[in-house]
Structures are given as structure tokens and as C-alpha cells.
Fold these 3 entries.
Entry 1:
Amino acid sequence: MANPIKECKQLTPLAIFGINGKVENGVRQHPVTRAAIFPLGNKIAIADFAKNTQEFVAGHTNSISCLDVSKSGKYIASGQINHMGFRGYVIVWDYESRKEIGRHDLHKVKVQAICFTAEERFVISIGGKDDGSVIVFDVQTFSPICRQAASRAISGNALTIRPMHNNPYFFLTAGDRHLRLWSIVREQKKLYVQDVHLASKTRTFYCARIDKKDEFAYLGSGTGDIIKIVLNCCDRDNVTRPGTTSGILGAFGTHNPRKPTGRDCNRYVNGVRALYVLEGGRLLIGAGDGEVQLVEERTEVPLINFRDYPEPTWPYLRVVKRTRVSGRISSFVRSTPEKFYICTDTNEIYMLNINSWILKLLRTCHAKAVYFITFPKNYAAVFATAGHESIRIWSSNRKQELLRIMVYNFNCAAVRFAHDGTSIVSVWNDGIIRAFTPITGRLIYAIPNAHNKGCSALAIASTGRFIVTGGIEGQVRVWKIEPYRQNLVGVLKDHSGPITSLDINYLDTEVISACTDGSCVIWDINRMTRKQVVTANTQFMSVLYFPTGVQILTCGSDGRIIYWMVYNGALIRELAASKKSSVNCLSMNATGDYFVSVGSDLQVKLWDYNSGDVVGIGSEHASSVISAAYSPCGKTFVTGSTDGSLIIWEVPEEHWGSPNPPDGPSYQLPKPQPKGKPAVQSRVDSGTRLKPAPGENINGLLKATPKDDICCVECPPCAKKEGKAADAFAECKIVPDVRKC
């Protein structure tokens, strides 16, 4: 009788680490539910930080480039970037139902910025450099009503947009040598525009804010100063009031009282990237270098006194408080009257209390793709991820980052914990193998030039005596690891492409390597020879040994998961995991009953190993999923994607797996003791001792790290450059006289 097909359940995430901080003003907060709304790939994420929950709204065909939420929280508007020659969509969503209620595709390639006008009357969107138009979308009729070029021929592109607070028919656009005030005439379906007079000043504006009374506007420039303009609006036909015009009041910097007049003006490094207008004329300013300042105007000094100032930027702002965050600031979001969310382009969210001036790091995630995920041996409380410039250790229970090890300008291809938990071994694309301590992140040893084109895969033996690495050039190398010395044991050459995955069997006698050339090779580690080869018409992305070591599991770019026999390399079974995209990674639980697969179709699938059925599926990722790891307890697993997000998934209880083999009565013969001779401890450590060597161990990382705290460590350079020698022959290591050798 055939086995019944198991029911496929929807997998639920326990925690989601993910945010896209590179979108300008991309992080918003819902005014009623207080949920954070931000773009993540081609989806809109709605996250509740208090409950640690997150959901997605899908509908865009490519990455979201701008986002806005209406004042009442009823609607969400978003725009996307597309490939050259294609249209960029603008979509209006209903927040309660999470469904699309209107869209248009009138922009070319990219939607640069988007906003709701006052009273939720219109949605204004501006196109990127390939489009250059302003489009007004009527929310009442859910249709666009007018379109006009955003810039004049002598000015640059519009980069940001800001509506008035009290009048729904007026808005402001700013950008590269561009600052214009607009009015909407709904009956005639027209737009009237007036350029703001900036005198002789030329700026590139990155952000803009308008005060509550719609009298003044503050703009942050790439020069590092604040431009203040008077609006003098609002007249429907003339934009500004008759007989008046909008113009500049001045370009302001911060005052440095320690310097003499004429040199006492400081500008912001890398420009002003975010602004917020507070009560009492104070400003919260975020700079491109991560500087956050609370400033106020020097009202005791009249502006007319700066007419003879030698610099175009006047020191009219006084710094009240200051702090610094990591990365370029992209968004300011006011959560409560005294608390602000600060988002940076390194995908981090901070909470700043402007009264007590306490800065707290709330959320972190990788800024780029997560290349590898791993758990320690028999310890599910923490896991490690490898990404751009960093290795990060996360807590599964606290749902936060514990340790960050930074190696600038390089990518970590793979990371593994030593089985005794005393070290973290990693391989990098600069060709160096680095090992770190698990608590302080200190560099233990580094093996330079391990692979001449960079490392791409890593596997560690259970004894910790040797490690196996794979390179982009296609070689597999075995290294002997000793406390004070690391030696190359052998080089295994058979592949003709980059090594994508390595795995060692539980006896430490075989290692299997997967390659993009369509072959997987099983190597004998003791004899340094090839034992078996399996080939398929695909690019293998991941390979796994079954816990007993009798079968292997592979996946590749053809979307198939294949079972192979280790003894003779025979194909046992094929599973169609995806019809259109590749399967990028596999991970199996400790018992071998279930495994998880992830792919470029954004889906995470949980499989029954014996029946080959999908028993669970999850679709919470917003971009291609390229890494996965099953926890040692079998109750959770973690997946990572190309946008830097991580998701911890809960495995249903019926799929936790059973011990293999099942627990049963066991009996061991007593070991006879030799008479007359005391037991002498062996001098050679077999690597199977239960107690690890004294020192740092991964078990103590949670105790050593306070709650809501992150330890960030920078890795020192592995090779110092030697100074140029005084001797002409010393630089080439040549000894001209043989007698001096």
C-alpha cells in the first residue's frame, strides 16, 4: 500500500532580521498601530518591534525605491525601480486589507520619490533621471490626472519631494540645482510651478522639511549646510501670494566659538542626508558620516549681520547635543514626542531619546547578502552568519546580535564553529583563512594565500585536527591545525570551476566537494585520493552527507534535489524542488528525517527525507534565498537572503524528527584494569574529550554579552608591508656575494 501524501503546512517565522536602509526616507511608522513600515526587496514589510512580528505586502516586480504612508494611516504608496527600457510602477495600497487599490506605470525605469499631500487628496511621484516627470494621482478616483516635466533644461533632476501640511494642492520638489514650488489645479488638470530664488547659491538637495505652519522650508544639501527658504504660499494660480515670491533666507552651518570670525562655520561631512523640524525652531540633523546633531538658530544674532561674512555659509546654528551612529543616515521617524527612529544605510535602526539623549541600537542585519549560516555542535542557542565585511553571531532566544567581527573590504564566503566550541574558523575572498575566539572575537591564527583566487567553501573535522577548504580556482586543500602551527597537508585537483560546498562525513575519513562544473567528488582524506565522482547536467550549489554517511544529497541550478549512493555513486531519487529557478542551499536535521531547501523563487521548503514530500513551505523572504542552517535541536532553522535579511523559522512539532537509531537499552563490557600498574593517561589527545581546553568557549557567549548590547571587533591586518630596504639587493632578496650566504 502506498504511503499517503503528507499535508503541506505553512511555516511560521519566529523572528525576522531585515531592513532596507538604503532607500531615502524609506522607514515610516503607522500613526495608529505604531508598526514600522519599510521596503525590503520587492515587498513592503510591516514590522511590530514590540511583538517581534513581521508581515509582507507583495505586488512589485522589482526593488522598491520609495515609500510613503498617509497621515491617517489608511493608505500606503510605493514606487519601484525597473530594468532599463521598462516601466516603473506606482502602487497605492489599503493598509487594513493589505491589498492594492490603484496603480499606474507612467514613469520610466525608476520612481525617485513619492508622497501623499495633505488630507490624503493626491499622491505625487517624481521619476528618476531617465524619466524626469511629475505625476499627480487622484486618490478619490484612483487615476492619474496630470503629468509635467519636473525640471527645466538648465537644471538637474529632482531627488526629493515634500507636501504642505495644511493645503493639499501644494508641494515642493528639490534636487540637483533644482528647487521648485508647485500648485495643483484639479478642475483644469494642470500644474503651476514657480522656481524658488536662491540668489547665487547652487546646491544639490538631498532632503527637505517644512514647518507646521507652512511658512519656512529647510533643505539639506550635499555641501553640508542647511538652506532656509520662505515659502509665501499659497495662491492657486500664482503659486505664491500676489506680489511676493519664495526665496532663500540663507545657507546655515554650525557655529564654532573657538575659531575666529570668518573661520567659525562648520559644515557636515558628506552632506546633510536627513532633517526633522522640532518645536521651538530646533532641528534634528543627520549627516552622511553618521553624525546626529540637535541644533537651534542663534536668534540673538540678526541675519543682517552676516551680509559681510566672507563665506557663503553662515554660522547661524548652535549645536545643542550630538552623537554618532554607524553609516550614512537615511531616515528620521518620530515614534513618540521625545523618541526617534534613526535608520542608516548599513541596515541598522537606532532609538534616540532627544530629552535624555540616550542612543540605543534596536535592529541590525547584514547590509548585503548572507552567504553562509552555521550552528555550533549540539548547541542551538546561538548561530553565526557570514556576509560582506563581517561575521556575526546571533542569539536564537534573545533574537539579537551578540558579536560582530569586521574585516573591511572583503567578503566572508563560509564560517564554521570548531566542534569543541573554542574557535570560529572562516574563509574569505582575499584567500585568507582566519580563526577567531568565540567571545571576544580575537584573531587566533590566519593562513594567508590559502587559495590564489580566493576561498569559497569550508569544512571542519570533528576532532578539530584538520580543516578542508575550497577555492574559486577549483582546488580542494587539506590543512593540519596545531596550536602554534598550521600546515598544508595536500592539494586535491579535479574540478574546473569554483567550489561551492564542502562536507565531511561523521568518521572524518571522506570529504565531498560540489562544483559549478557539474560534478561532485568524494575524496579519501587519509590517502588524499579520489574515491567517487557523480555528475549531472547542472551547476551544483550545495551538497550534504546523510548523518550515517551512506548517502549524499545535492541541489543545483536546474531546480532538482538528487539523492546519491556513496558506495558506487548511483542516483537514487530526484525531486523537483523548483520549475523555473535554482535551489541554492540544503540543510538537514541531526536525525536525517527532514531537510530544508531554499532557492531563487523566494520560497523555503521543508522536506521529508524518506518520502520526498514537502511538509512545510514558507514565503516570507523578499529576495533570493541563498543560505540555510538547521538547528541541532531540530526545532528551528535559519535562512538568509541576498538583501541581508535573516529569518528564524519554527518547525512543527510533528516534524522534529526521531533519534536515529532510536534510543534503546545499551550494554557495555567493563574495561579490565591491569593488575599492579596504575592507569596512565595517554599523551596523545584523541579529540574526543568531553571537557574543552580552558579558555573561551561558545557556551559562554550569552553570559558574557549583556542584553541589548553588541560587541564589535575589527580584525587586524594579516600581513604587514615591509619597508623599503636601504640595500639595493635586499628588496629582491638577492645575495650578490656567495660568501655572505
Note: The chain has one helix and 57 strands.
Entry 2:
Amino acid sequence: MFTYTVSVVTGNQVFAGTLNYIYLTLVGKERSSDRTLLDKSWFERLDRGTVVSIDIHVEETLGELLLVKLEKEKFLINDDWYCRSISVTAPAGDCFEFPCYRWIADQKELVLPEGRGRLPQDEKLSILKECRHLELENRREKFRWNEWKSGFLMSIDANKSSELPLDVQFDTAKAVDFSLNAFKAAENLGLNKLESLFQSWKDFADFEKVFITIKNTESEYVMQNWTKDAVFGYQFLNGCNPVMIKKCTKLPDKFAVTQEMVENSLDRGTTLQEELKAGNIYIADYEILEDVQPNDTDPSTQQYLAAPFCLFYKNGQNEFIPIAIQLSRQTTPGEKNTVFLPTDDEYDWLLAKMWVKSSDYNIHQLITHLLRTHLISEVFTIAMFRQLSAVHPVYKLLIPHVRFTIAINTAARETLINEGGVFGKVDSTGGIGIEQVIRKGMQTLTYKSLCFPEAMKIRNVDSKEDLPNYYYRDDGMMVWEAVKSFVSDVVKIYYSSDATVQGDEEIQAFVQDVCSYGMKNCPNNEFPNALKTREQLVEYLTIVIFTASAQHAAINFGQFDWYAWIPNTPSTMRKPPPTEKGKVDMKYIMESLPDRGRSSLHLGTIWILSQFQDNELFLGVYPDKYFTEEPAMEAIKNFRKKLVDVTKTIRSRNETLELPYWYLCPDRIPNSVAI
């Protein structure tokens, strides 16, 4: 008689336990055990957070353990069970790990392969090949591509959150967190509505009344300093949307700025052409908003959009300041484009800056944030579930970085960007504008633009010497290198050569699925449809992880900091952009800004979006043990050490700054797009 000791770990989530009967069968290379009921007694059932151990006795050893089969049968009610993992100690003392981390609902049988990471070409036994095949066949039935809106990136085929596969739905703790955040935000909105019945504003002091229960140090700093040109410029380096600026060596034809206009802003005693040549001039161009239809969902409130140019100057004090703004792009003969300048009347210049920030906000929400982190991460996630088996090392590498991504995007399609959703109520691109902007953004979504070092080079902002104090770039490069080093370590463990990459049918199917299906509406995206080298694989996987973690953190978690003070970044404008100078007064500015109702809803929404969850998992924190081999676990330890070093560097730098930059500090970067 031989004994196998089996330990089964139930998850810690609310409702993870089950009253149902769970049967287990061990499958070895030589033979299988009998089907065995896990529960030894009523008092040792599979409760939340418990470890149930049983001994399975066999007449002959089973040989090398290959699989564990789990079967669930109804008892009283059919409830779901979340199995974390199973470990088996064989008679000779060998320990076999079977990672699960899945919900078991109506499935009559769940088959778990032994947990070592294996490429498909490593499988020699037909039973394991068939297991992989059936697993992926089942997943492809659950994770189907769908075109939510014509011309968008492909998404999951589900109309509401309850239709999602259980394993990608929010757990109860996450759902409760959302409810608490929403409640606090709603409390703020309610208090504000009780405070006063007016919907418009008399002056900027009125906006302070929005800050009643939700505020922080950064947003108060913005409130006190937002009119300063240096603070305006700083936001394009280190605010919520630090991806718009690019070095300007030649002025756009439609930009009517001249040397005479800006000569008072150039402090080196040089000309505009000389500064362009020297590399001290930068531009933010919002051409993508040209001809986009402004939000017309509210017949009682007309809303407006602009497609501005904003010219920046890195002056002799290394300040990054705006020196010219043009809000229109007139091409009609006889009509001119007004260029607003720091030397103009105070209100003319202030409103011009507000218009730029409003345009920037709308691009940030729809392209930088929604399209280039949320939607692209969902494409990677769906392709991963469809094409990579759970024992594939790349699946094990990526799974922590896709946590809740499909769930949050589905929730967004239900409540944020849907018809009648929050974005439609508060943003000037609401309504049909959302679709127009996303489709335009698809034209610029390329593979290289998601590769962080390449993105810096494309905009010619990669030099610290040329452009100092660009902490988004500096910290982003450190995190990128740490992630790339980790990915490289893992790839080297499982791929001995470039030929191994080429022979991996699952990884090739993964990138093909992304390129041919997920990105099918994205022309000229340059996404590879095959990978030929280990170097290419490392870059691809680094893009996936960095986009879901660091890039999303950089452009999401500062929203309340920079957007809570409404005048600094209006979500919409209720007056058309000025075309002449000397016509703007405080009354016109107040009538331009979003009304009280929209401002309150905007504030509550960005507060929710800016919150970490109570059970947040930050970069490199992997409580679920998908990797079971020592080399892979050592790679994770080294990754964490590198992230600690990056964190120390950022903390040391921040001690010298008036306004610290934290958004890319590893201990504040969640693993995945989950909010």
C-alpha cells in the first residue's frame, strides 16, 4: 500500500468556499488513483481560506504525477468554489505542485496539469497534449472577440459584467471597494448640491465650494498655483497626460506664431528660429480634435471643442513655459488665426491656457488613457486566454498583469463611455465625439509607440540634457528597464534559442491573434504577426506588462491631483473659444467653464478613478504562485530587488522637489489595469 498526501487550498475571497462535494483523482504516468471525496467530515469542508489535507492510498505507485482531476457535485445548492492550488506529496517524498487559481462552477470536471512551465513543443505525452488542446478549446468558447463600436479595438463578447467568465469578474472585495468609493464621492456631490442651488459661477472662489469632503495636498497645490505659466508647463511634463509634447524644429503651416510675437518670452537673447534649431522649443498639437463634433447630448447646454496649438519654451532657468497658443485653424481666405501670448491681457491668456488644458483632458481620457492602456490591454488579455495554456510560462508571466482588466473595461462600457454614460454627461467629446476621437486615435496606435524608449525617441524628448525635470520619462525608463530585465530572465529560462521561439505554436498564435483580430481595425499598426527571436519576444512581453502597469499608473492615478481644481482642467466648455483679444472678462470665463452639476459629477468620477483598492497588488507582488520552479522564482526575487532600488532612487529625488513625482514609483504601480 502506498500513500499520496494531498493538500487543497481554498481561496480567501468572500464566498470562495463551497458546500458541494469535491472529488479528486490523481493521474500518473503509469496509472490513476480512485476518485476520492475531499471532505473528511462535515466540519472539515472546503471553507474560505482553509487547507484540506487527505491521504490517498493505492496498491501500486502511479508513476510521475501528470494531472489532478477535480469534479464538483451539487449538495443542497450549487455554489461556486475557488481553488487556489493543490500540492501532492508522493510516497517517495517528491512534491508536485498544481496551481489552479480558478473558480469552479458548473464544470463537471477541471483538469490541472502539474505546474512546471512548459512550452507546447515540450509536451511528449499524448495525454498532456490533449489536455492543453481541450483547455484552449474551452477558453476560446468563453473568450470571444467582439467589435463593441465600429472601428474600435476588439473587445470581449459580453454585454454586461455578469456575462463574463467567472475567472475575470471582479471579486466581491473589489466590488465592495468600488461601492464605498462611489458612496464617498456621491456624499460629496450631495453635500455640494445642498450647499447652493446655483449652477454657474461668479468667480474662482466659487469652485472652492466643490472641495468639501474630498481633497488632497496635490490638488490644493494646483488650486493655489494653477495660473502660473511654469505650473501650466510642468503638467505637460509630469501631469496626467505627459505624452503630448514633442520637440519642435519646424512650425506647423497652420500655426501663425511669429518671431515678433514671442521675442519677449525668449530669455537667451536669441530668435525663435535660433531656439528652434537649438532644440529649446516644444509643441503640443491637438489636431486630432479638428472637426470632432462637440457634445450635443444635453439640448439645454451647448458645448464646444477646439483643436489648439501650444508652443513651449525651455528657458534659461530650465523652466518649461508656454509662449504661444492658437485655438483655431482657419484656412478660409480673409480669416486669420489669433495667437494668444503671455503678454496679452491677463484673462485672454488665462482662458487660452484653460482651452488647451480642456483639449488635453479630452485627449487624455479617450486616447492616452482609454485607448492606449485600457483597450489595448484588453486585446492582450483576450488573446492570452485564447491562445496560451495555463502551463505556458508566458501565461504564468502575464496573468498577474491582466487581473480585472476585462472586468473594468466591461464596467466602463456599461457606465462610463456608453450612451448616457458619465463621459457623455461631463466631457466636451461626449456623444458621437467619443467614437470620432477613438477612431482618429487608432490611426496613431502603433507597436513602437507602446515601446517606452521608442516613444520618447519618436517625440524627440529622450535626452535628459535637452529636457531636464521630465520625471515621467526618467522614472519610466527605470521601470521599463527593470521589467525588461525580468522578462528577459524568464524568457531565457524557457527558450534556449531563437528557434525555440519560432517553434512555439502557442506564442505565435498569441501574437497572431492580437495582430489579426484584436487590432484588425487599426491600420498600419506594425504589430508583429510572428516572433522570430528571443529579443523580439522580450520586447513584446515588456510592452504588455509595462502598458498594463507603469503606463496606466502614470496617466491614471494623478487624475484627482490635477483635474480636481476644475478651472485648471475643464472637462467641457460652454462658450466658444475666443477669436479676438480684449473681449474676455471674468464673466465670460465663468460662463465658459462647466456648470456646477457637471463639475460635481466630474469631480466624483475622477476621485473614484484615482483610488487604489484596499487589496491592491503592486508591481512585482505576486501572491499567487503560478511559477513553481526555482529559477523562475529567483527571477521574481531579482525583479523585486530592482524595483526596490528604483523606489529608493525616486524617493531620494523626490525629497529635493517642491512637488514630488510619485506616479511611477514601483510601490505605487498596480500590476494591472483594474480601475
Note: The first strand starts at residue 2 and ends at 10.
Entry 3:
Amino acid sequence: MAQKIRSADGLLQVIPSPGHSAILPKKGETNVLITSALPYCNNVPHLGNIIGSTLSADVFSRYNRTRNRPTLYICGTDEYGTATETQALKEGITPRELCDKYHVLHKETYEWFDIGFDYFGRTSTPLHTEICQEIYQNLGKNGYLEPQSKDQTYCEDCGRFLADRFVEGICPHCGYEDARGDQCDSCSRTLDAIELIKPRCLVNKSHRVVARTSTHMYVKLDTLQPQTEEWIKNAARRGKWSPNSVINHDLEIIDARMKAGLVPAPLTRDLVWGVPVPPLGREDDEVMQTKVLYVWYDAPIGYPSITANYTPEWKQWWFNPQDVNLYQFMGKDNVYFHTVYFPSIQLGDKRDWTTLFHLSTTEYLNYEGGKFSKSRNRGVFGPQAKETGISSSVWRYYLLSTRPESADAMFSWADCITANNNVLLNNFGNFVNRVLKFISSQYQGVVPESNDSPGPLSPNDPDDSVFISDVNRLLQEYITVMDAVKLRQGLHTVMAISQVGNGYLQSSGLNKALMTSNPQRCAQVVSRAINLIYVLSALVEPYMPATAKAILVQLNAPPRAVPEVLSTDILAGHTIGKPEHLFKKIEESMADKFRERFGGNEVKTEVAPSAAAPTKSKAKGKKEAAAPVFSGEMTQEMIAKETEITQQGDKIRSLKAQPKSPETDAQVKEEVETLKRLKNELAQLQSS
């Protein structure tokens, strides 16, 4: 089929050829290094794990590639530590066998979700051991390590010290009989295993457990704290961090541990499965030679070590702060380790590390009124998403449109189905399919001559100035929010652009009558609409890569880079592919079937809604009815109203992210009332 695409520098994405050499940073360019929190290799991930780090990081990495920036996305399984040993014990296999098993399960799950790591590795490698030991020895050489002796639980029958997760006993605070060595599940208090009353060994509960003194190596976080505080403030300012549990809007340190004064933190553990503690050439080497490095020390080092397994030139990424910006994605429970603990280790190492530039965290995604629970069969875990028959694109869209950026979010089957039917099918998919089917049926699949010159369309165009200006404004908004890692807002902007496209078709009156009465205008509308679809293929690629690929097949066009303005890039005489529906309707009745299979009740929360899932009212004592699926043509007034709703929802989320006070609570209530009014106005427009 004939392709006629405008030729211009930067118009197309630069796609590495198969078997290409490793991606490396380029001097003088914006080089982006991305990591997502390494998942523990002792279980399968659930949807909350996926949106919290791997999926969000994937969106940002794909966005940067659509901007033709040198980008490297690294992740892998975190394989050492007590969690792995404990799970291996439960399954009756070795830690290595357990890690081999779950590494494959994780990789398969992420591949189905179209998460495009440049390299997905693991921490149980020789290079990981080498890099961990080198940093440890540098900490010792630089005077930041000291031994400390403390009482720990010891199993006389096993003949070894017991890590926290190998011990159970009575909670000293609430009396719960099955408290773990690190935390009581009943009162949620953090524990030290030595505090447990009548401790039991999980290997065999009849074993005798006693207290014995063990010596471990500690890193002097107290000595490093002044350097760490200075680094945090500079990094937060430079990388425009969002307020988090460590630092606030005013660049004030708010982490309780730092305000109280950091204390030395352990770097070693009495385990078998882990990185062996290397010698320091000191008297205490002998007592350390049977120990391994603590998992919270070695896990963050997994980022550079996995990169080292990807390329021998890994130091070009990790010792290059002048040319590389490091973006790290994780859940809120990992903030301390990425903003305080690991940067302290890097500072103590005293080499010129690439350190954190921007931190992107999420709150928790809950499931249908409760928490995900594997043991209680509540929620969707790993490969189960594929078994629903819902495509990876729809899963990605819904999870990202409800991404818990400033408050916990709730997964809802009803809202997921509404997002597919109302937004993807009736808005985005309708626009693409309507234009391409018209070209196929009325122009035999060949783009007609519009008399538009190749290149940017003028915002002063006599016919379409409003349309072109609206698209250009939204394109600038998309670039701005994506560069700021506001991923949910970026997705809302993509959908707003497709709404503008639908409105353009309606206001232009694209149909057979226009083709007969004004063939030149009809050709012009078709040309501008298909070029907007070409733009949308680039904008949606980070969020729904399979959908973007399908659009490009139907356009018969190569991948486009993200533009700053709407242009005529697909030229007259270009032959398109066969139009196909991008999405299919999901029956509302499926929500109950999914709940029956995956647990959960139909529960609505009072959080601000996303563009994906409009909030629905619920009468007390009555089962909530699913929102009606709007199946008519989107008018410009509806489009404007949905954009208002999106902006209002983001405003509420921003307010909720601020410190609580009577003033902010009152403002939130006021803005929620405004949101309800806007949604009622939209409903009236759709019913009229």
C-alpha cells in the first residue's frame, strides 16, 4: 500500500533496530534513567503493585521515547532476604528454586500488561554481589561502618539466629498470640523479634528459642545526616519533587526519623540466602564472615547491578549526574529508602553517583471496598487479568485513569466497565473508527487532496482556527504535564483531544452530504481528522501501546514522535489500512460475574472521580445501579463539560494532598459540591 508521509527531522520516532547495541546516554541530550521498585520474588503481583511502580514507570519511559530522548528503563526481582527464605520454607523448596519460579511469573505478568522494560533482571547475580560488596567496603574505608552487639532470637535446635520472619510469638502490647517477629497483625505495632513473649521458631514450633547476643555491622546514618539533609533539599528543588513523607512544599524535612535524628542502621543479617559480607581488613572481619548483607541495603543496589547485567557500560548511566536524570517510581511505603537511606549510602560511598532526580510515588489501590488479599481470594493477581478477557489496553487505561497519585483509590468493576464503554469505545474509538471508515468507504481508502500544505496548520485558518488552536493548546498541556510526571492528567488530556476530534466531525458535518455539496471542504476535514488521529497514536502510545500499534496498522503509517502542534503529515494519495474497531463493549452484567470470581462487593467511595469513571449516586439501602452508557454523538458542549469535570476532579485531589486543616476540609467540601453540579449538568446534556 502506498505511503505518503511528510519528511521532516524529528517527525518520526527513532526505533532501535532488532539486535541493537545497548542504549547509552548521549552527551548534551536529555538522558532519562528510569527505575521501578523491585518486586519481591516471593509472590505474584496484584493490580495495586502494578500501578504503583512498574506500569507508571512504563508510561513515563514510553513517553520519553516518543520524544526521542535516550531512555533506559530498568527493573527486576528483589530476591534476597528473610521474605524469600520464609516463602521457600513454606513451599518446601530452596530459595534459588523459589526465585527462579517467581521471576518467570513476574516477567510473564508484566509482558502481558505490555510493560516494556529495556531489561528485567534480578538481584541474585555475581555482578550484584560484586557491586554490593564494593560499596560496603567503600563505606568501611570512609569511616561510616561500626559493629554493634544486640540480643536476638536464637533457635537452639536449628543452631542459628532467627530472622524476624522466622519467629512468631505473643505480642507484648496487645497479647495477640500469632504476632510476627517484625509486626503484630492485630495491633499493627512494629516489633523487634526479641520483644515477643514465648517466641516460636517457624521451622518447627517445638524448637527451643532463646535470646543470644549477635554482632552486626551498622552504617552511621547519624554521621551522614547533615550531608543527606543538604542533598534532599537540593534534589527536591532541582527535580521538583511533589510533597511526600520526607519533605514538604516548603522544602522542610518532615520525616519523623530525621527530625528525631537518624541512628545507625544495620547492614548485615544472620541468614544464608544473601550477599556474603566482604572483609574490611579489620579485627571484626571474623565475626562477620558467616553473615549476609541486609536486604534493604542490597535491594536499591539492584538498580545499578541490573543495569550492569544489561551492559558493561553501566557506569555511563550510574556515574554520570551531569548528563543523566534519574526518575524512580514506587509506592508510598518505599519513599524513605529511596530519599534518605539509599542516598545516604551513595554519599558515604563518596563516588560521583547519578542520584535521584525526580520521585514519583502512589498511594494504595484498594479493591472493591477492601484490600487485595491472596489468601482470601480478593482481587486480581498476576495472570488472572488475562483470564478476564479484558484487553491489556483497557486494563492499562483504567488503572492509569484512577492512578492513586494523592489519595488512596478504589478498584471497581462497574467503573472499569464504564471506562471502557463510555470513554474508550464511545469517545476515543468512535473518533478513530468514524474517520477511517469514511475514508475507506467514500475515498476507496486513499486520503483525498485537501490543498493543505505539508507541515503545521495555521491557528488562523479561516475554517478551523478554533479546532486547530484547541488541539495545539492541549498538546502543550500534554507535554507540560507529562514532563512533570503527572501521568493521570496526561491521560485525561489525551481523551480531551479525542473529544475535540469528535466535536470537529460533528461541527463540520462530515458525511456523504458534505462530500456531495462541498467536496473540497470534505477532503479538508478528512485530512485534518486523519492527521489528528496520527497525533493521537503518539500520545496514547505510552498508555495503551497495543492500541497505538493497531491505529498505526490502520493508518498504514510509521510511529510518529509527539508533536508540539497539529500538522499535515499524512499527505494526499496515502493509502490507509483496513479500519477495525479498537475496543468492544463489555456488558454491565459482567461486573457481578467478575466480583463473584475475584471477590469483592459493589462499593463506592467519596473520592474525587477520574475521567474514566463518573461518580454515581447511591440510595441508602438500595443496590447501586450502573451508570448508563452514553451512546450518542458527543457535542462541543458535552466535551467542554467533561473537561471541566476532569479539571475539577484534579483540583479536589490537589486539595486533599495538602495538610489537613478546617480550612482545607471546608474547601474540599465546597469543591465536591461543584463537581456534583458539573456532573449533573453533563447528565442533563446527554439526556436532552
Note: The longest strand covers residues 145-155.
